[in-house]
């Protein structure tokens, strides 16, 4: 007996095809429209803002950690654990610099003192991060590599 989610896949594909055919959208634009929650649209690229500003990313690290990272402009982000750790989320102030075109180094400190340094490469949609957490006397350092998907 087929599982119910197997029957949904053709409907989703048909919806994307309908969007592409009737609206004249490219497949990438049609997919982005499906990924964005109602009432949200993909942020416009502006020369003065980094590519991540106003965007939501789903980050998948090689060790199984999954996060949502929603940027409110370029200097504030809301992060949320999606998998691989206990549920947690928070809002942080972000410092960043553009290392080279499309490659950003971001840094922030979470409310519990955890520090995160993340490098996003928008050309390859890859991400590397160093997370340091723990008490002042016993900080644990975790290095991660993975990829990200643009949600909005």
Description:
- The protein is α+β, with helices and mostly antiparallel strands and 152 residues long.
- The chain has helices at 4-23, 27-35, and strands at 56-61, 66-71, 76-83, 89-93, 95-100, 103-109, 115-121, 126-133, 140-150.
- Helices cover 19% and strands 42% of the residues.
- Strands 4-3-2-1-9-8-7-6-5 form a nine-stranded antiparallel beta sheet, with no helix packed on it.
- A hairpin with a 6-residue loop joins strand 8 and strand 9.
- The chain is globular, with a radius of gyration of 18 Å.
How is this fold's topology laid out?
Blueprint: H1 4-23, H2 27-35, E1 56-61, E2 66-71, E3 76-83, E4 89-93, E5 95-100, E6 103-109, E7 115-121, E8 126-133, E9 140-150
Antiparallel strand pairs: 1-2, 1-9, 2-3, 3-4, 5-6, 6-7, 7-8, 8-9
Helix pairs in contact: 1-2
Flag low-confidence runs: 1-35, 38-45
Report the biggest beta sheet as strand number plus sense, adding barrel if it closes.
9 strands, antiparallel
SS-based class = alpha+beta
The strand count comes to 9
Could you tell me the strand content as a percent range?
Answer: 35-45%
Order of helices and strands: HHEEEEEEEEE
Number of helices: 2
Shape: globular
Strand line-up across the major sheet: 4-3-2-1-9-8-7-6-5
How much helical structure, as a percent, in the residues?
Answer: 10-25%
| Radius of gyration, taken over Cα atoms and rounded to an integer in Å | 18 Å
The N- to C-terminal Cα distance equals 36 Å
Mean pLDDT: 79
């Amino acid at each position: 007996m087929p599982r119910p989610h197997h029957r949904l896949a053709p409907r989703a594909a048909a919806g994307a095809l309908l969007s592409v055919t009737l609206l004249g959208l490219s497949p990438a634009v049609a997919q982005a429209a499906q990924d964005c929650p109602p009432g949200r649209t993909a942020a416009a690229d502006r020369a003065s803002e980094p590519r991540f500003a106003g965007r939501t990313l789903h980050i998948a690290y090689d060790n199984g950690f999954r996060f949502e990272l929603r940027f409110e402009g370029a200097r504030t982000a809301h992060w949320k654990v999606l998998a691989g750790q206990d549920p947690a989320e928070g809002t942080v102030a972000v410092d960043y610099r553009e290392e080279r075109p499309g490659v950003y180094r971001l840094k922030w400190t979470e409310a519990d003192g955890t520090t995160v340094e993340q490098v996003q490469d928008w050309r390859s949609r890859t991400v590397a991060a160093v997370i340091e957490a723990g008490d002042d006397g016993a900080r644990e350092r975790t290095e991660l590599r993975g990829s990200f998907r643009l949600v909005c």
